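Quick one, tokens below. Sequence please?
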């Protein structure tokens, strides 16, 4: 371990501990890269906020998100990955070697760096969102929609993602409310047409979510405000079992933006189908570079690719 105010030198540093980070650690450790992984504040990433995961191969009966992340962590540790709870507070990617500064003041230098810091779903900021997260509130319809088959749900948002999630849920649920703050959809015309043609999607324009309500067993509904601040403002309630946020994600890339090329959404840009960034020896995997799929299985796959890319880089291939 690093001593106080010391600089430790390693071959491969992995920043982040979701499916991408842990999978990268498994592959890097098996390749004798002796990877050191810093978990970040949310050890296990976004999946630790998910209850049941039923679409990840290898778990035919399903598994909770925290248990799956613990399994991945143990597997990485089994092959010798050095997994540490800690936060990378800053980086200097002008090397090689590349340097990361930790929140305890220590530094670590690495010949290869794999960034797997993920993305953070945007929420409305309501206290009740936190109360019902995992028991009715979700930021991923593809992940959790299955649990609401035949039930009524709501989706918040007006862009392509919100429309796509509403359409997906319409194939599973009895009724889907699409809650849109503006009086129009920002989504593409094709997506709008699909939403309006779905018989069980009800679009609620000019509605804001004021609060969610329920009991100890889970979410029961949402309290909405129609035309907030207007003379004809009114409050209504809808009864829903599921409430899905589709107002975007924020990739956790703020400490890297000085060195790495990012797209307009802040996601790390990689070279083609590889995980290589614009900086030699620095690789990106998982949601931090994927604004499209954002699934545990795709994150794990890119973590595998990042470790292989790092191994080949270090071997001079």
């Amino acid at each position: 371990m690093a001593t106080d105010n010391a600089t430790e030198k390693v071959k491969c540093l992995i920043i982040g501990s979701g499916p991408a980070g842990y999978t990268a650690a498994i592959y890097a450790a098996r390749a004798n890269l002796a990877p050191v992984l810093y978990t970040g504040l949310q050890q296990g990433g976004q999946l630790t906020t998910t209850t049941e995961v039923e679409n990840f191969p290898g778990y035919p009966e399903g598994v909770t998100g925290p248990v799956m992340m613990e399994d991945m962590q143990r597997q990485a540790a089994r092959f010798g990955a050095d997994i540490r709870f800690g936060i990378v507070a800053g980086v200097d990617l002008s090397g090689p070697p590349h340097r990361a500064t930790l929140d305890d003041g220590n530094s670590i230098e690495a010949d290869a760096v794999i960034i797997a810091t993920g993305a953070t779903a945007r929420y409305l900021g309501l206290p009740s969102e936190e109360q019902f997260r995992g028991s009715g509130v979700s930021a991923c319809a593809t992940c959790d929609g299955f649990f609401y088959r035949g039930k009524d749900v709501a989706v918040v948002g007006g862009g392509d993602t919100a429309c796509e999630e509403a359409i997906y849920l319409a194939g599973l649920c009895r009724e889907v409310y699409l809650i849109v703050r503006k009086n129009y959809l920002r989504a593409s015309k094709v997506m709008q047409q699909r939403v309006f043609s779905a018989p069980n999607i009800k679009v609620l324009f000019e509605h804001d979510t004021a609060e969610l309500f329920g009991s100890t067993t889970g979410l029961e509904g949402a309290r909405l405000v129609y035309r907030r601040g207007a003379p004809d403002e009114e409050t209504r309630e809808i009864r829903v079992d599921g409430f899905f946020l589709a107002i975007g994600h924020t990739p956790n890339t703020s400490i890297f933006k000085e060195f790495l090329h990012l797209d307009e959404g802040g996601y790390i840009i990689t070279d083609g189908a590889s995980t290589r960034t614009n900086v030699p020896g620095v690789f990106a995997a998982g949601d931090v570079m994927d604004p499209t799929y954002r699934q545990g299985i795709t994150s794990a796959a890119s973590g595998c690719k990042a470790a292989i890319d790092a191994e080949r880089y270090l071997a001079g291939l």
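The chain has two domains: 7-120+249-314, 123-245. The chain has a mean pLDDT of 94.
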